[in-house]
Amino acid sequence: MKKNRKINIAFAGTPEIAFDIFEELSKKDFQINFILTQTDKKAGRGAQLKSSKFLEKKDIYNILQPENLSDNDFKKIILNQNIDLLIVVAYGKILPRWLLEYPKYGCLNVHFSLLPKWRGAAPMQRAIANGDKSFGVSFMKIEEKLDAGGIYKTFSTNNHGQDIYALEEELVEITNMDLSNTIIEICSEKIIPETQEEEKATYADKVEKEEGLINWNVDSSQVFRNFLAFKKWPGCYFKFNDELVRAINIENIKTITGNPGEISSFNKDGMIVCCQKGAINLKSVQFPGRKVISSNDFFNSKRDIIPLKGNLI
Length: 313
Prior knowledge:
single chain, 313 residues, alpha/beta, Rossmann fold, Methionyl-tRNA Fmet Formyltransferase, Chain A, domain 2, seven-stranded mixed beta sheet, six-stranded antiparallel beta sheet, 17 strands, 23% helix
């Protein structure tokens, strides 16, 4: 690439974590040709349309929301652009070969795991739920096979009990510290991607709604890790009198034993429910259609109908 010419980049991303990375990248000295983001999606109660945050930038940047990445009209728009590198952060669509090959230096994916571990849709959630000792982010050249491209760089951070919100924030900060420098190094041909060790690959499947239901037949530590991992979605909940009650704040108590699902104690400090090993203290909860209540309010409102040594299974 010629010296003194601005690097031409494009960006593909959809959720807020991608927007936060773009915000920092937009402050750097790059020419941003366009932004790819997904179309509006129905979400939440009432299935209201939720728009990508990137639409806030429509007066500044060329925002593209193609339904089909192989549509001829979309291809014409892209092929008229001069792109050195396409940066992809949680875009949510698989890029076709023509788009992967069009930018001069290919496509750079910011993937939130220490590849080749946790390829796929939910790397942070799976790493937290698995109790990994460390988390991280990988800068990867995209190939057609899912998250299997060569690695430019990886950055790691220790597991110190982060939930999904804290881990996202930490990995965004790590990404923003070096992404612009990595773009410059790629486009000046100072770094090349290293092949992943395929035999070490593991996969992070999409999180399903039913995974939020507490399984009292597992170790309490696993229940707590799931709580941290799924806090954003689908949340953590348990069955009570045919209702699904959301657990808002819980505590892992490793020293208590009892039958899985058995209510060991219930007082103003919470409701302690035994697991296969250890127990979980439900410190604040939310009943369907109601506001969040503390352990004290929970006890005062339900103590007459929740028997000690009762069972939630």
